[in-house]
Write a structure and sequence with these properties.
Shape: globular
Strand content: 15-25%
Bound molecules: zinc ion
Structural class: alpha/beta
Distance between the termini: 9 Å
Number of helices: 10
Length: about 300
């Protein structure tokens, strides 16, 4: 049952991924590509240099020609290993059991991506990460991400995410992609259902992130005018409102960052450098209630 649900989800994503880059940063690898099976190695030893067939597919999917293979420095490898070690066991286990290969790509649009391949009729996963997230703080990275959706030129408003601790951006990236793998393995979502009307806000359907689409950015003033609708909707982040898969990943990531890592994130809007609105999603009863529902669904599987 679990795998059946998972396959249905993946097939629907495959068709989505072939026609548009909107939605989750996830795509099926070409079936004929021969990716190394590194499942017998420890998770952090599955890092390799990305095969050209996969790099070319990423370039074409995102229309970015400047993606480059990246070899981890000693410092980056230490950060990677330390961040993995600190993951909760329920996220570590599906990574160890299901992720074939891990690649780092310079200039990648976004923090990371979960790619899937078929092995003996079952999905397995390849993780792509942006090494830049090792060198930015959590606050810097999420502020950058959120602002890729908006046009703030000629506006008095600016948007940022602040953090209560001093973590690196890669912490969010690894937890977020781990949540995707966990979601696919455990089948939390049955399909990519549309957002319920009571949880929607009008600019949501116009958002796109990381400059991987040609759609125009949303004027930040439009989002500011819908900020209260957004905070009542139950999304952990603006990015999480993009699609159901990232909704789950962001909900779990923001709650975990707060409760496990003491990294409470605050979305802030400033007007003429004065704070005018803020939202701590990990304090929101709606977000926490939805987090409990996600976990309750999983505990029954
Ligand atoms: Zn995602």
């Amino acid at each position: 049952m679990r795998i059946q649900i998972c396959v249905v989800v993946l097939i629907s994503l495959l068709s989505l991924g072939c026609t548009s880059t909107s939605g989750p940063r996830l795509r099926s690898a070409q079936l004929q590509a021969n990716y190394p099976n590194l499942l017998d190695k420890s998770f952090t030893d599955r890092v390799g240099m990305i095969p050209s067939v996969l790099l070319d597919d990423l370039k074409s999917m995102d229309s970015h020609s400047n993606y480059l293979p990246h070899e981890l420095s000693l410092d980056e490898r230490a950060l990677f290993e330390n961040t993995f070690v600190q993951l909760p066991d329920f996220l570590k286990e599906p990574l160890q059991a299901e992720v074939f290969d891990i690649y780092f790509v310079e200039n990648f649009s976004g923090g990371g991506m979960t790619y899937f391949i078929w092995k003996d009729g079952k999905p397995k996963y390849i993780l792509i990460f942006n090494p830049k997230t090792f060198h930015q703080t959590l606050s810097e990275w999420l502020t950058y991400r959120d602002n890729t959706a908006f046009d703030s030129s000629n506006s008095q408003f600016s948007l940022r995410e602040t953090e209560s601790g001093n973590h690196i951006g890669f912490l969010h990236t690894l937890v977020h992609e781990s949540c995707h793998v966990y979601d696919f393995v455990h089948g939390v979502w049955k399909n990519q259902a549309s957002v319920l009307p009571e949880s929607d806000f009008p600019v949501r359907s116009k958002l796109s992130f990381y400059d991987v689409e040609s759609t125009a950015k949303v004027p930040i003033t439009d989002f500011v005018s819908e900020f209260d609708l957004f905070t009542k909707a139950g999304f952990a982040s603006i990015y999480g409102s993009w699609n159901s898969l990232d909704d789950f990943a962001e909900n779990e990531t923001y709650v975990l960052l707060d409760k496990k890592y003491m990294a409470k994130l605050t979305l802030e809007i400033e007007k003429d450098n004065m704070l005018v609105k803020s939202y701590v999603s990990s304090n929101s009863p709606v977000v926490l209630g939805r987090n409990s529902e996600f976990m309750e669904i999983n505990s029954k599987k």
